[in-house]
Write a structure and sequence with these properties.
The chain is of the alpha/beta class. It has helices at 15-32, 37-51, 60-69, 84-100, 139-148, 193-210, 245-257, 293-308, 322-335, 347-362; strands at residues 73-76, 79-82, 119-127, 163-169, 173-180, 215-221, 225-228, 263-270, 276-278, 284-286, 311-317, 338-341. The protein has a six-stranded mixed beta sheet with strand order 7-6-5-8-11-12, sandwiched between helices. The chain has a two-stranded antiparallel ribbon with strand order 1-2.
């Protein structure tokens, strides 16, 4: 039997790394296909042929079997479905994708090294990790660890000797992420909804794993507004809707009112002006042309109502049409919040930086 050896290169990937990359690619495609697994697999198979992603060591069929073996997808009633584990894997991949593109000095992923209110020292100890507060070092345990492996004449303190107290955030933050699902989010050949979904998936994973005491609700708004769950995100689609920003803000404010005495904020991702609202008799009033004063004024009223409820709104505008600037300035002033004009490829980084900065302010 003949065995072929290829030259080892520093950037050569192991089989495990290669499989992990393919799963991440599959997850990215899955978000674009709105959670349609078969459609995503068809895309991946075509890409595999075009770019030679599969070979005799890992065929496309082997890859599908591996997805099932790892419990990321399953078969139900003759159809492939996304499992809970698969949904979490998507969130993890999106979190890694966004953080890997962030500048080291702005990521803020580790806690500040300043002590202050909002942090409670627990009795449990753990080994020191980069980002832990120096003030939480347990000197007694640390010195004991060092002396056990050295003597008084040859004292040496290594990083592995340092024990720190576990800490817990005593204050929490309640966030509503508002996502525009109006038709313009996929118009003009630009996919704006996929980056928005990626941000929502990553932000939810960050909060679930890093800040479990924080709360995140997700609200989508088109002609109307509704709350969706994290599990719904991969399947989120854009409809033939107008932009009822007022309804989205009103629902978000209602959700945050239920969170009690915590710090509250709204992150709103949108690409256009408000163009719809509900009238007092429950009918929807729409106007896609220009800035309709009736719609704009009611939306500004909702921004003021959020301010009175101590809810700050940060707007991430992923379009830069000149006529939107004045509205965004008025809206931001009415609420006392902030606004960013964000490119799609920087949307996730901007939101994460702002979220982490806000947490440090809250604490």
């Amino acid at each position: 039997m003949e065995i072929e050896y290829s030259k080892w290169l520093p950037d050569s990937k192991t089989d495990e790394q290669r499989l992990e990359d393919l799963i991440s690619l599959f997850n990215s495609i899955l978000i674009q296909t709105n959670g349609d697994i078969q459609d995503a697999l068809d895309w991946l198979e075509q890409l595999g042929i075009e770019y030679q992603l599969f070979d005799k060591d890992l065929s496309f069929g082997d890859f599908v079997d591996e997805l099932k073996k790892q419990g990321l997808i399953a078969e139900k009633d003759g159809m492939q479905i996304l499992t809970s584990k698969g949904s979490q894997k998507i969130r993890t991949d999106m979190l890694r994708k966004i953080f890997s593109g962030m500048k080291p000095d702005t990521s803020g992923y580790h806690e500040s090294n300043k002590s202050g209110r909002g942090i409670d020292k627990l009795s449990e100890l753990k080994k020191f990790e980069f980002g832990d507060q120096v003030t939480n070092i347990d000197l007694t345990s640390t010195l004991k660890n060092a002396f056990l492996k050295s003597d008084i004449n040859n004292f040496r303190l290594d990083e592995d000797d340092i024990d720190v107290y576990e800490t817990e955030h005593m204050s929490s933050c309640a966030t509503v992420l508002m996502i525009d699902i109006s038709h313009s989010m996929i118009l003009y050949g630009e996919d704006r909804i996929t980056p928005a979904k990626e941000v929502a998936l990553a932000l939810s994973e960050l909060i679930l794993t890093k800040y479990p005491k924080d709360k995140l609700n997700i609200v989508v708004f088109g002609d109307d507004a509704k709350e969706i769950t994290v599990r719904d995100l991969p399947f989120l689609t854009v409809g033939p809707f107008h932009t009822n920003t007022k309804a989205g803000l009103s629902l978000s404010r209602q959700l945050l009112r239920k969170k009690g005495n915590v710090n509250k904020q709204i992150f709103m991702i949108t690409d256009g002006k408000p163009s719809a609202l509900f009238t007092d008799d429950g009918r929807i009033y729409k106007n896609s042309f220009g800035l309709d004063p009736r719609i704009v004024n009611k939306t500004l009223d909702e921004a003021v109502a959020c301010r009175k409820d101590k809810i700050k709104i940060t707007t991430f505008m992923i379009a830069q049409d000149y006529y939107l600037v004045n509205f965004i300035e008025e809206f931001t002033k009415a609420n006392g919040g902030k606004a960013y004009y964000s490119d799609l490829d920087e949307l996730g980084q901007n939101i994460f930086v702002d979220y982490l900065k806000n947490r440090r302010k809250f604490n």
